[in-house]
Structures are given as C-alpha cells and as structure tokens.
Amino acid sequence: MAKVKPVEVDAADIVEKILHKAVDERASDVHFQSEREDLTVRFRIDGVLYVVQNIPQYLRDGAISFIKLTAQMDIVEHQIPQGGRLEFNHKGRLYDIRVSSIPTIYGEALVLRIFNRESNILKIEELGFDSDQIEVAKQIIANPYGMVLITGPSGSGKTTFLYSILNALNKPERNIISIEDPVEFHLDGVRQVQISEKKGMDFAKAIREMMRQDANVTMLGEIRDSDTAGMAFQAALTGILVLSTFHTFDVAGLIVRFTELDIPRSVISHALTSVISTRLVRRICSACSANYEPSDLEKRFCGIKHDPFLLQRGEGCEACRNTGYLGRTGIFEIVYFDDEIQTRILEEASPSAMRELFKKKTDKTLYDAVLQKIYDGVTTVDEAIRVVGMPLEVRRG
Ligand SMILES: [Zn+2]
Questions:
Q1: Ranges for all domains in the chain classified under CATH 3.40.50.300
Q2: Which residues are near ligand 1, the ion (C-beta closer than 5 Å)?
Q3: N or C, which terminus of the chain has less Cβ within 10 Å?
Q4: Nearest to residue 376, comparing CAs of 126, 160, 130?
C-alpha cells in the first residue's frame, strides 16, 4: 500500500514553493483568497495582479494555517482580521513578509507583502525624473527646513522615493532620524525608529522625542492623523527638514485635508515648501518591444493629429511572461510653494482655484510626464490611462 503523506506537509510545501516563485518573479504581494471551492493564489507584479494557481480544497485550511502559524498569528481565530510577520529565506537572502488576514464569506483571505531587506536603494537620478525635474528636486531637498511631501495612492513608489532622498542626504554632518512603520530598508548612518503602538511608541510621541535629539532631517513614514500632522508641522517650523508621504490624488485636496486635521492655514503656508506627486508606470519589455500604428483614441491621448505616427509596445515574450512589460519607472509632478501659492493658501482660495494655480506653477504635470515616457518608448498609452487616467479634453475628443 502506498504511504499516505500528511496533508500538513503538502500544504507547507506548496506555500513555500509559491513564496520562492513569488520572489523569483519580483512579486510585491501574494494573495491567498478562499473561494467557494479552493484557494486562489495571485501575485502582484509591477503593480498588477495575476492569478498564479489554485490550491485544492483539501489543502486549503492547511495552507492558511501554515502561513498564520509561521507569522505568529492565532490559527484558531478565523472571524476577526489579524496581522503578523514572518521571515523568509530565498537563495540565502532574507525577506520580511507582512501578513494580513480578513474573514470573507468563503473563509479567510490572506495578503502577504514582501519586503526585500537588501534591495538596492535607487539614486534620485534612477527614479524616472527628467533632467529639469532632477534639478528642482535637488534644490527642494537642499532646503535646511520646512516640509516636503510625497503624494500618491498606495503602491505609487512613495516609500522608494523617500529612501532615495534620505540616502542622498545621508552625510556625517547631518543628523537624520526616520520614524517608520515598518522600517523597510536599513540605512547605515540614519537613526531609524520603529513605531510600536503596543509599546506606546506612536508617531506623535516619536516626533516629540526626535525634536529633542537635535535632528536636522526627519522622515515620517506617513502623516495619518491630526496629532502626527500637528507635530510634523511644528518640527518643520523649528528648523528641521521634514520628509513625509500623504495619501491623496491632488495637491489642492491635500491643503483641505490638513485644515480638516486642525492645521492652521498660516502654518501650512509657512511650513510646506513643496509637494511632489508620483506614480509608477510599467516599462515596455525591451526584449519584445515593437513599433505599431496607434488607434485614434491613442493618438488623441498623445495630442497627435498627423499621420503616419508610430508608437511602441511589447508584443509579449518569455522574459516578460507575455505581458509586454518588465519593471517600472516613476513619473513626477513637482509643485514648489512660492509666495503666490503661500498667499493664496492664506486667502482661503477654493480648491478649484488652487488647482488652476498649481497647474500654472508646475513645469510638468503627471500627464505631461507620462506623455514624455510614451514618446520615449518607455511606456504605452494603455499603461498611462491605467495610471493617470484619461484627461477630460481627450475624453471629449
Ligand atoms: Zn517581452
């Protein structure tokens, strides 16, 4: 009689294989989603989700329990959301994986976010700025104090960008303290503080202590509430360069959000020196890139009226898993807060008036930046629409 292998061993084995594959394929997240019959596994690669495989029903509970157990979560509890962490060794490199679970109608859904501790921090020049923007960005971070915010939806490269800035500023003559949740990369020479709500170390408390630590530069992982916002602005006004991120789609909305967080307009206008919006677009795979004749809509998106006009796209190959894309690059919109913007904030200009003003003040909007990437053959119109949307003028035709 054939020897029966215990189900738990199979489940653990299958999960480990999936995680190895995820790291090999550069996935940022792995989703294990309970369905009516089985467990669907998806990878997020370059910002897009793909179904990778289905784990059959008889291994489903074993797989979920194995992940939760390894991440030190309560495996008996299935009804409330939980969080956990695990370390994963792939080809001799250590990866931190943050696990989140929520109960769904078919059972639990787990999302595993993969952090590569040893991944290289990019130079500012490698992020995707064009040459004019690089100069402005460098001037902005050379300010000795004030607040610089990086904005964009989650997964838009804000954290990568912040680390690049910190790395550029990381010199012995500067005392840099970062306050993070979680600390994603280790930077020698930077004092990195891990937030721990359980131990009573929240953002506001950490910022207060940071200000007593004679800091020149601080990076705050994210400004989420009025306590954090209040402390961050105070730090920016007392001679510290404060770098942080904020979830928002446009800069005008950001000023409204800060007033809702009880930050006086006078403080916003004095402390906030610039806002850099960022998004990530997928790069066309260089192994299968080819010219093609764009559709009318695509031409309209690019503002092209003449024929013939050729654009590039990836036709799909093994290197890019038939997606036509490999890797990503950033696009940026920089708004530097000059006297006119500061005055208009104090005058309580409406968000739409502010929006117009910002448009006038920026050299390049996100739309301009993504168009440049299309012309340069770096990305496609499809990708541009997915990431920055369709401008109203183009929709109207
Ligand atoms: Zn390809």
A1: 124-396
A2: 285, 287-288, 314, 317, 319-320
A3: N
A4: 130
Distance 313 CA to ligand 1 centre (A): 9
Kindly give the distance from the C-alpha atom of residue 331 to the centroid of ligand 1, in angstroms, as a whole number.
22
Dist. CA 229 → ligand 1 center (Å)? 44
**From the CA of 282, how far away is ligand 1's center (Å)?**
12
Domain limits, CATH 3.30.450.90, in the chain = 7-116
**Contact by Cβ (8 Å): 219, 176:** yes
Average pLDDT on 154-158 reads 88
Interval between CA 312 and ligand 1 midpoint (Å): 12
**Highest-confidence range of 56-65, 112-121, 296-305, 383-392, by mean pLDDT?**
56-65
- Ligand 1: distance of its center to the CA of 379 in Å? 13
The region that residue 72 occupies, defined by phi over 0 for left and psi between -120 and 50 for alpha, beta otherwise, is left
CATH of domain 124-396: 3.40.50.300
198 or 40: which leads in pLDDT = 40
Please name the residue that has the structure tokens 């950490």. Answer: 206
Q: What is the CATH number of domain 7-116?
A: 3.30.450.90
Q: What are 197's two structure tokens?
A: 């709500």
User: What pLDDT digit, counting tens, does each position of 236-261 carry?
Assistant: 999 999 999 988 777 888 999 999 99
pLDDT of residue 5: 59
pTM for this prediction: 0.87
